[in-house]
Amino acid sequence: MNVQNKRTSDSTQERPPFSLVSSVTVVGDSNVGKTSLILSYINSSPLNQQPGASQRATIGVENSCLKQVELPTSSEIINLHLFDAGGHEQFRNVVLSYLKQGRIFFIVFDLCNEDTFNSAVTYWMRVIKENCKYALDECLIYLIGTKCEVEQYREVSQERAQIFADQFSIRYFEVSAFSRHNVDCLFKTLYADIDEVKAIKIIYRMH
């Protein structure tokens, strides 16, 4: 996957001695659309309009994307890292190591596959709680149902998913990587939440 990183082109502008970084760990079962969601956002186009968009399963955890964004209230510039975590069981030990340091999580499931929802609300929510070094109320967690464009195959109702999200005081979004429905709304909400709670790491640059 291509890494996109927009940087200031003015060479005369002095770079500050640090970077503001927010990292999002994207988890969920295999084939629920985690990589597709990331590509849809980073490339700013529906997945069905992206030539060569890969449908392969993610191996382990891929530091797939880096995007520079401006927070809506503070106007601070942050580097957003999106860690794409493979959902296959053979990679889960690798994924757990990323959960320990994470503070922002996307828990992704397929609206057309009830088993992936059950896994999201039992397994993935539990392993975040057990492995993350932060308390859940110190984290930003988003439950995300994908493939909402194929409503006729839906197996998980919006009401059911929202009830679970409300129990844990986390946000719930239904998105489509193929039509980009709600994708921008999801990330705009993320940036506003980061701005509010300052879920940012300060990385000092070495000179």
UniProtKB/TrEMBL annotation:
Species, as recorded: Amphimedon queenslandica
NCBIfam families membership: small_GTP (TIGR00231)
Pfam family, one: Ras
PROSITE patterns documented for this protein: RAB, RAS
Keyword terms: Nucleotide-binding
Family annotation (CDD domains): Rab
Top-level taxon in the UniProt lineage: Eukaryota
Protein name (record): Uncharacterized protein
Family: Belongs to the small GTPase superfamily. Rab family.
Gene Ontology MF terms: GTP binding; GTPase activity
Entry-linked InterPro entries: P-loop_NTPase (IPR027417), Small_GTP-bd (IPR005225), Small_GTPase (IPR001806)
